UniProtKB/TrEMBL annotation:
<dbReference type="Pfam" id="PF07920">
    <property type="entry name" value="DUF1684"/>
</dbReference>
<protein>
    <submittedName>
        <fullName>DUF1684 domain-containing protein</fullName>
    </submittedName>
</protein>
<dbReference type="InterPro" id="IPR012467">
    <property type="entry name" value="DUF1684"/>
</dbReference>
<feature type="region of interest" description="Disordered">
    <location>
        <begin position="22"/>
        <end position="41"/>
    </location>
</feature>
């Protein structure tokens, strides 16, 4: 459950605004992964209903020495990332962990994951989260909001190569939050 200072109304407004901006980008932007021939009929992504239960407080544990790893991709060579942290959290009554990665030059952390909805309700090869690393003010806890889980660009077009989640980032629960399958 989110922390004591969680303002659900403001959170809902922020997530809905984020979804509106994402849909506008996908419909109109020249760099949209939606094929040009499909953009005219595109009227937004299909999302799960907002659910604050899928916004969890995660313990951020920085790894002792970050490691460069190659994540398998949907096509082409592996993608290089630096494994920098493990995020530990409770969901569905169990404790789970996800590895967090950083791309050189990026401030946010990249968290690719799979769950039991993949292939039926969500993109079959996994989804992504972008997470802000904690700072001195937040300590070792961060909000991990699966309502912001999104499909990689390869979910929309075979013209993209996308990093795939590792087995370590396979959640044995249904994460019915964020973007559904396109």
């Amino acid at each position: 459950m989110p922390g004591d200072d969680f303002d659900e109304a403001a959170w809902r407004e922020r997530v809905l605004e984020h979804r509106t901006e994402k849909d506008a980008f996908l419909a109109d932007h020249p760099q949209s992964p939606i094929p040009e021939g499909e953009r005219e009929d595109f009227d937004g992504l299909d999302y799960f209903e907002l659910d604050p239960e899928f916004r969890v407080v995660a313990r951020f544990s920085e790894v002792d020495s970050p490691q460069e790893v190659d994540l398998e991709t949907t096509q082409g060579p592996p993608a290089k990332y630096e494994r920098v942290a493990v995020l530990g959290f409770d969901m569905d009554g169990d404790h789970h962990t996800l590895d967090a990665y950083r791309v050189e030059g990026e401030d946010s952390l990249f968290v690719p994951f799979t769950d039991t909805t993949n292939g039926a309700e969500t993109y079959g090869r996994g989804r992504y989260l972008d997470v802000a690393a904690p700072d001195a003010d937040t300590g070792d806890e961060i909000a991990l909001d699966f309502n912001l889980a999104y499909n990689p660009f390869c979910a929309y077009s075979d013209n993209f190569s996308c990093a795939l989640p590792t087995d370590a980032n396979d959640l044995p629960v249904a994460v019915r939050a964020g973007e559904r399958d396109y």
